[in-house]
Amino acid sequence: MIRVKSSWLEVNFKEPHNVLSWAVVGGGWKEQVDCVLWHRVQDKDLTLEVDPIDYFYRSLLHKKESRNGVGFLTSVPLENYSEVILEKQNLKIRSVVTVGLGNSVRIGDPPFQSNSFGTINILVQCSIPFELNTSLEAISLITEARTLAVLEAKIQSKTGLVTGTGTDCIAFASPSRNSTKRYTGKHTLSGHLIGKAVYQSVSQGIANWKKSKFKAEEIKRYECPRSL
Prior knowledge:
Elements: E1 2-5, E2 8-21, E3 28-40, H1 52-63, E4 69-74, E5 82-88, E6 91-99, E7 104-105, E8 120-126, H2 132-153, E9 164-165, E10 169-175, H3 189-223
Helix pairs in contact: 2-3
């Protein structure tokens, strides 16, 4: 179930999941997870002096959140999330994505301090349990699918087409049960569904971001005082 309320987006699991990620909160290999949370922040909230981990934990305390969760930070409107669910042969893959490309870069670009915020946060949930090794392979597929979707958006950096943002984050979740799944490469059904779901959801997220950005620019242009 997905729930959006105020500055929070929640993906709640019907049973505990193991989650592999490098999320701000709960990163690494985390077991018995109940939910994955997105928290929306404003540019002013995360200045260089603010530790994002401390900020997130303080926000959780304010929310009175006590569940075992994994947490993303984002600056994009949470209602612009995209979701793709694919199912075949009793295997279900769900990809939930928020996309902001204000912080977009091309892989290998020199490090720099961006004046704008934006990130791609991806949660992929699998209906069957994956062990750690298989989850690592799933993360590689998610990364590849995200990069393809971003490349096809044809957004330019100073050195070429951007491949993501400087702060992208990925989480892969599967039920906390014993697993016999050893592989999930592109020749497997699970690999196929993971790649397709992520590609479609990130592509839709990019379209949502472009639409939101265009709307904001139109409002700003309309509100600018006109010379007499």
